[in-house]
Amino acid sequence: MVYNLAPFVIAAFVFLLDHLTKFLIRNSSLTGDGFAVIPGFFNIVHNENPGVAFGLFANSKGWVRMFILIGLSAAVLVIIITVLLKGSRPSERRNWLMRVALALVLGGAMGNLYDRIVHERVTDFVQLHAGESYYFPDFNVADSCITIGACLLIIDMWRGREKRHHTANVSN
Questions:
Q1: Which value, to the nearest 10 degrees, does the dihedral of the CA atoms of residues 65, 27, 20, 69 take?
Q2: Between the CA of residue 10 and those of 21, 41, 111, 159, what are the distances in Å?
Q3: Which of 1, 27, 107, 148 has the fewest CB atoms within 10 Å, measured from its CB?
Q4: CA 72, CA 139: separation in Å to the nearest integer?
Q5: Distance between CA atoms of residues 141 and 105, nearest Å
Q6: Residue 1 binned pLDDT confidence (cut-offs 50, 70, 90)
Q7: Residue of 18, 115, 138, 143 marked catalytic
Q8: Domain spans of the chain?
Q9: Structure confidence by residue, pLDDT tens digits, 46-88
Q10: Annotation says 18 is catalytic
Q11: 18, 124, 138, 156: which one is catalytic?
């Protein structure tokens, strides 16, 4: 039973943490300049992004942005939930790394989708940069969890490939 619910508990925690941090930033007096946590490297800022990562689709017409950002995000959520539910059957149990990865992606996607539906934009507040010349696009807790989840999925696929490769070599 815990195996079945664990990914959804993780996703709910990610969603709540993302929602709380964005709420605190939206209700703060921060501007785009924010304040330096680690001068020359890490700032806390307040930026609103109407697009997706790196500002893509930020200037698109409303219906295009709605279809792409909300429609596709909702479809991805349905697919992830389906995979997690299917993987909870005893005969089809997926490994824990894939389930944690999908849970992180699910929670992050839910957080950003909520922002897009309710606020029509996503609140970003983490700003990383190298000196005054290079700034990485601002991001948030949801973006971080989606990225970490995607990296874990890549590791899980790599591990599965290595395991199949090792099994094939042993049987030869």
A1: 0
A2: 17, 29, 13, 22
A3: 1
A4: 20
A5: 11
A6: low
A7: 143
A8: 2-27+43-171
A9: 999 887 765 666 666 767 767 777 888 899 999 999 999 887 6
A10: no
A11: 124
